[in-house]
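Hello,

Our lab assistant flagged a job as stuck in the queue for most of the afternoon. It eventually completed. Since we weren't sure the result was trustworthy after the delay, we are filing this so someone can double-check. Below is the sequence as submitted and the structure that was eventually returned. Let us know if re-running is recommended.
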Amino acid sequence: MAPTSDSVLIRAAERLTAADLVQATIKRGDGGRLTIRPVGIKGRRMVQVSAFDGRKTDVKNYATAEFAEEARRLLSGELRSVMVGTAIEELTVQFSRKGRPILSVRRRTEPVEPELTHDRAIERPLPEGKPDRLLQAIGLMTAEGRIKADRRRKFVQINEFIRIVLETGDLKTLGEPPLLILDFGCGNAYLSFALHHYVTEKLGIAAELVGVDRTAEIIERNAAVAASLGVTGISFEVGDIGSHQAARPPAIVVALHACDTATDAALAKALEYEAKLIFAAPCCHHHLQAQPGFLAAGGAHRALLHDGILRERLGDLVTDELRALILRIAGYQVDVIEFTAPEHTAKNLLIRARRTSRRADARLVEEYRALKAEFGVTPYLETIAPPTLRAHLRG
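-- returned structure --
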């Protein structure tokens, strides 16, 4: 008999309060993330909970005796996943769209000791303080390993992007190496440079990066940076996203801040290539807002169209939800999250998607068509999606 949600969460709570807890991560349905670990404070063993809500991190420390009740509270409500590591095992719970828990337990090959240091440095994929040739080549880091004051926001953004990629999918299972990373509308390609660098040099996975952009000067600059690094597997092309033809299906498609329908073109290509992972940070939404049906939409939300800034934001939300629904209908697990805190980038919404083998739920198609009808619009992505998917969307 399949485990119930209650029984699985009871088991997770037991591990959270175990004396040999090493670290735990709880991802909530609202996008929040909790990190739990034991700490030593003034000779006492306590439990530290770091709660990140997409904007800021709040940290609280609990005596072990009072943490049992808190552990049950942390595991209540809508959850996306729970990972609890103890000295001898890792317990992982993933939740389906219907809330069904999928439990897995892996025994460690060797016991792990918890790190009780209280004021430890923030762990980043590409840390500060240690010279890194990629961060130096793109102008973020000094020769001594110090991040330049005026580039710290980009440094935080790069590390957050790598972290998001790593938690979205196991890169070692994406296919036979070298993994192909396609960056559409690549611009300066800082984040893709960093991802390729981390995958190849930190994880030891062979990978290739291809950046595509319409601006020749940017492509020339990126090619010069790649040459200065002296690494193979990085190339850049001047071209249009819609006409691009990849040499082989990419494992990862990236489109960060591609303007308006360029984001749709990148998503359509990712769907055509059946990319395993997709990361798109939309920018400059104009196509949907200009459609007559949207401007004349009725219903309870009509009042939101009176003021320009609210009309634009509503259009942004509708556009990105339609994009997310199309990806879900195409067989991807999708969530829309804050990229980094707003103080690090104003363009901080990210659509991330992982291809799955499950068939599309008919209810998703109904939701998609209902949202289109409510606002009287047709998203650009529908018009350029692969033919079979396009026909499915239209019915």
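-- support follow-up --
The delay was a queue issue, not a problem with the job. The result is valid. The chain has two domains: 5-107, 133-394. The radius of gyration is 23 Å.
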